[in-house]
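4-carboxymuconolactone decarboxylase
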Amino acid sequence: MSKSQHGDRYVEGMATRRSVLGDAHVDRAEAAKTEFDTPFQELITEAAWSHVWSRPNITRRERSMITIALLAALKQDEEVAMHIRASVNTGATRDDIREALLHVAIYAGVPAANHAMKIARKTFDEIDAQAG
């Protein structure tokens, strides 16, 4: 589907997705998509990035914290790291992320939070190394 054939939700979702994840990440994802997974990419762009992330009711900082906590509880390691990297664009601080992971420890289990803390430390180290 060409860009001109996408609806308003897709366009809004793509703008939010780029704002949160960064152009480089989205460009890599777009370049890697295939005929098989294009419908999935369109779904997450419209559903997650437009219907949810673009809502005005809570801030992107808050959404970032919620998302990281949920992904940590679900043990979605790559997604945890991706959303921690995205926190530089959402305003969620390292203190915010630590607090979210403390909630994970209590409500989803210490092992899940412990593992997510390791991912967070590694991801912060990578961010710091790139910043230089």
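thats it. The radius of gyration is 15 Å. The chain is about 80% helix and 0% strand. bye
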